[in-house]
Amino acid sequence: MDPLQGRFYTRYPMRGRWPKARTVRPSPAYNAFFRGDTIKLAVQVFDETGTVLDLTDAVILSTWKELECYIEPVLELSLGSGITIVDAPNGRIEILVTPEQSAAFLITSYIFDVEVTLPGGAVGTVIKERIDIKADVTEF
Q1: What is the pTM for the complete model shown?
Q2: Which of 82, 78, 128 is CA-nearest to residue 101?
Q3: pLDDT, tens digit (0-9, with 9 covering 90-100), for 46-79
Q4: Which domains does the chain have, with CATH numbers?
């Protein structure tokens, strides 16, 4: 069976701890950040059976777009440039948006996705999520 066939699941740490191994969730526990702050997302990728997806030699990309226009990307991340495979055999990655990158965001909603291409050529979108960028107090 193709490991990317069907639905993907991702697991996000809550309060600094990972949920139990059998817990799979299709969306993150957070969705709002302040403009100019570091945005750091820890992600674990599973296949449709709940088995951790081995990301050894995988190619991972992330595209961020404004929710309202949804046409041109405002940010594109890739391995070594905002995306790090933290633990390939256990499907763990980290997505990092720098303060400089998030400072360029408008105060609005965005949609971002994360796409994984496995060494065998299978491609799957493991996250497609809305995120809100808010102004912090220093911007008023």
Answers
A1: 0.77
A2: 82
A3: 877 778 889 999 999 999 999 877 788 999 999 9
A4: 9-19+26-133 (2.60.40.10)
Contacts (Cβ under 8 Å, ≥6 apart) of 16: none
List, for residues 19-45, the tens digit of each pLDDT value: 433 333 334 445 788 899 888 888 888
Give the chain as a DSSP string: --TTSS--EEE--BTTBPPPTT--BSS-S--EEETTS-EEEEEEEE-TTSPBPP-TT-EEEEEEEETTT-SSEEEEEEETBEEEEEEGGGTEEEEEE-HHHHHTS-SSEEEEEEEEE-TTS-EEEEEEEEEEEE--GGG-
Backbone angles phi, psi at 129, to 5 degrees: -145, 150
pLDDT of residue 139: 63
**Burial of residue 49 (number of CB atoms within 10 Å: 0-12, 13-18, 19+):** exposed
Q: State in Å, rounded, how far the first CA of the chain is from the last one.
A: 53
Distance of CA 123 to the CA centre of its chain: 15
Name the more confident of 4 and 69.
69
Count how many residues are written for the chain. Answer: 140
